[in-house]
Amino acid sequence: MLNARVLARSWAHLLLGGALLMPFFLLTSVVVGLAAPDTHVTVHLGWQLVAYGLALPLVAVAGLLRPVRPLEVAAVRALVAVPGSALADGPAGSPDARRRAAGWFLAHTALGGLVSGASLALPPAVVFLVAMPFVGPLRRSRWADQFPVLPDPPWLGPPLGLAVLATLLAAVAGAGALLARLAPALLGPTPADRLAAAERRAADLAVRNRLARELHDSVGHALSTVTLQAGAARTVLAADPDFAREALVAIEETARRAVAELDTVLGLLRDEEPGDRTPAPTLDGDLDGLLDRVRAAGVAVHLAAAPRPGALPPVVSREAYRIVQEGLSNAVRHAGRVPVRLRLAHTDEELTITVENPVPAAAARRSGGGRGLPGIAERATLLGGGASWEAAGGTWRLVATLPLAGGPR
């Protein structure tokens, strides 16, 4: 049994196809009229079919245009019983996608044109046939001249009219079902569309991972440092007020920088222009401040070597700062106020970051299952380098190597 709602939506979709065919049909009707000046194309069924046939190649060519697919997909999603996930999004980019979209556009307009013509011609005929036995003058009216043969006796008119109506409904249902079967094949994603979608998902995931690393490294480092600074200030508040005061100043400065770095990450989420965001910290410009804040928490940080200012490419300097920041955060978080040795060995080809600190036995056994160390490895890998870490002989050692010419990958 036909679903009335599905039938009505299919009919509307086919009438839309007929409307899309109309400009092409009118153009070819003019051409046919010029070729046969003594013929009334608009009232002659044979010439109308000729104009219809000539219009279809023009429709196929127009279907190759990129905007056709998203327009047709929108119509199918609104009017055809096809799962939305089976249809492609966006303009047809590849030649294969354009050919499929052109095939769909041709099928939609061709069937829509036939159904639209029948929808205009047959309902008046149905009304005439059904009313003919009850309205005698109809058999002698000008409408009767449109029928090659009138049913005789007249009481055959209503059954014949209902049969014509049923045939029209069946044609609409059949054409709608055919288009519903063709839609996934012709408007569905091509292999190139699926590859592009996978690349977009990978790019989105990379951006999300980057934002997660930035939040973890900046906010996590700030919280670890502030916690240690606050604990140190509380411990010596009565015995050494000057140190406690310095620790509070360091807490204020650390929190202020954390807010600024958080604003930078939120700017990335809001897709602001780079000039509207707080510049990301770099090893060249912000290393001294980072070490001062860690030292203010009572952690002795010894800088064994450092690159000369301006020697690092900006992207390397930025990622190196985050790696050093996370390395110091790990030392503060897991080992407490122990001496930390930081070495930044710089050559013409690469920068090697080494962070070493003594660790208690319990901390030495940790597996590194948090997010900080994998984040360091990801940063190094994106630049074409690598990172490793180990706890041996009571010492925790983190080593990251960053090529200076590798660039983001």
UniProtKB/TrEMBL annotation:
Instruction: For this UniProt record, give its keywords in alphabetical order, as a comma-separated list.
Output: ATP-binding, Kinase, Membrane, Nucleotide-binding, Phosphoprotein, Transferase, Transmembrane, Transmembrane helix, Two-component regulatory system
What EC identifiers does the entry list?
Answer: 2.7.13.3
- InterPro entries this protein is in? HATPase_C_sf (IPR036890), Sensor_HK_TwoCompSys (IPR050482), Sig_transdc_His_kin_sub3_dim/P (IPR011712)
Reactions it catalyzes: ATP + protein L-histidine = ADP + protein N-phospho-L-histidine
Annotated transmembrane regions:
45-65, 105-135, 155-180
Return the Pfam families for the record. HisKA_3 (PF07730)
* Source domain of life: Bacteria
Broad EC category? transferase
Q: Which intervals hold domain Signal transduction histidine kinase subgroup 3 dimerisation and phosphoacceptor?
A: 208-272
CDD domains, alphabetized: HATPase_UhpB-NarQ-NarX-like
What is the name attached to this protein's record? Answer: histidine kinase
Q: What is the lineage of its organism?
A: Bacteria, Bacillati, Actinomycetota, Actinomycetes, Kitasatosporales
